[in-house]
């Protein structure tokens, strides 16, 4: 019984901590992203996107690699459909 209650209690405590932080500081804990952060974000995202398949292949995690490939293919199909229908702006 105690082993089943542990994760539930931890989830409630995390939720309460977030509620207290947002009550004390509604704008959040971090400052707004500056110009340097906005410039670095696409490069960091690209680096992570390129490193993910290599890391998963090195760890022999073929499920995650296959799942990420399917997400990429569906995203590419959705983008293509958006461009074909001429609603992209």
Report on this model:
This protein is mainly alpha-helical and 89 residues long. The chain is built from 3 helices and no strands. It has helices at 2-24, 35-58, 62-84. The protein is extended. The protein starts with a helix and ends in a 5-residue tail after the last helix.
Number of strands: 0
How would the global form be characterised? extended
| Proportion of residues in extended strands | under 5%
Number of continuous helical runs: 3
Note the gap between the termini. 55 Å
Short description:
Helix content is 79%, strand content 0%.
List the topology elements:
Blueprint lengths: L1 H23 L10 H24 L3 H23 L5
Q: What are the key terms here?
A:
79% helix; 0% strand; extended
């Amino acid at each position: 019984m105690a082993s089943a209650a542990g994760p539930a209690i931890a989830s409630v405590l995390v939720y309460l901590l977030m509620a207290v932080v947002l009550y004390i500081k509604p704008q959040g804990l971090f400052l707004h992203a500056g110009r340097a952060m906005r410039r670095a974000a696409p490069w960091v995202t690209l680096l992570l996107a390129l490193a993910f398949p290599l890391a998963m292949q090195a760890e022999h995690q073929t499920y995650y690699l296959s799942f990420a490939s399917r997400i990429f293919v569906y995203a590419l199909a959705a983008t293509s459909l958006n461009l074909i229908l001429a609603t992209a702006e």
